[in-house]
Amino acid sequence: MKSKKGWLAISALTMAVGLSACGGNGNNGNTASPSASASGSESASASASSSAAQPVEIKVLTEGSVNVGTGVLNDSLLATKKKALVADETISPRVQESDFNYVKGQSYNSNLYAYYYQQIIKDKLAEKNITVNMEDWGWGETLTQKETAGFLAGNIPDVIVGETQMPGFAMQGLLEPFPDDMADEIRENIAPAAWKPMEVDGKIYGFAAQPGVSSLFWNKGLVKQAGIDPDKAPESWDELLSNINKVTEAGNGKFYGGGVYAGPNAGGYLRYGPLLVINNGGFIDADGNPAFNSDANVKTVEYLRSLYANHPAGLMVNTEEGPYFDAFKKQQTAYIIDGPWRASESTALGIDYGMAPIPLSEGGQAGNITIGAAFNAVPKNAKNKEAAFEYIRTLYSDEIQNLVADGDLRSPVKKSVAETAEYQAAHPAMYLHYQAMSGNVQGLPTFKKNDSQVWQLFGDAVTKAVMSNKDIKATLDEAQEKAEAAIAK
To answer: Which segments does the entry list as coiled coil (predicted)?
Structure first.
């Protein structure tokens, strides 16, 4: 496994933008039991790991973060894609039509990554007489609406994919739990961020091949101008805030300390959510009910208020997240909490950056929120469940996980790939990311009723509290009362 530092800048940017556009996912500590019995996985587990006796074609939704196109992954599709890639002038001259195999360490762009990704899946499943027909149902709200309609109509692909909506589907009994042997294998060999947010009552309902969690990044050049050691990571919230204040002062209106995006939307919840978790707070209680006004959350929002002044006016809580990340890319802000794509994107932009785990608050504990994690799952009424689970198995195969590792845009989730001296030496930034995917990794919860309304109540409350001098506890109390009323309807 060799480093992909030689990737062309435009290639890294192209893929990084696609990855960072993904929203969050998951639900930590789900306790609501699915409406359908988990025993439905018995038939799948009986032969999920065996070869299919007869040829089977499964329908699979595209991941979103890997542009594998649509249609059947057969030789015809691959040949067409190969010709398109060979004609792409951004590909290394070493990639020739007569020698189009994946070579570790070879420079390649995001399209070529997708080619290798689908080629691995096609070849591994062909051994079991399984072919894959990829369908594109969009992403975000569009995808959620189509999947919801598909469940209602009983017309759903064999493998679906998604982010924040997926735990809700599991809790409603719409997804097939993973076969027990498969679940045991995943728990033993895979980082928690790839499956823990999709665990409900001891059953796993989804897997992400390359999930993200957030880390702290900083612009070494701006930090150095403030008289701060650019190679030293802040070790606490107090130290981070002190550094941020110093950068803002040194910038004198030309650049700012920055911090974290806290807009009233999923992008904001995903970025400052880890701070809530670290400070022993969060979005829900043990029963899955809103827990917006906890004492821990009040202290975290107080910290967010301190960060607010270290940005251009309104930027930190802008309803659109794009301008916030643009400010870091344009070197107008020094610190940012974001997903792993920030590393490769900064390299492509020529930003000398630092990366470290998010520092802890006083009395806090390490924790994180999955971000940009595309969870693959098998619907309860899928027509080809056994073959569908075989597809998901390929996603944590050595071949796919080594491809993810070599990509250096995200870290692999398979322990045997990531926890090697070779990987750690070749990809130090992504190894830090891999480490952050262990431990108390959560996902955004799905509330029992009126989910969008409840989220908006919290987001608006945080925005109000951060931008004003109003009593934070009172503001969160009001949001909590309204959220409880919305769920009780």
So the answer is: none
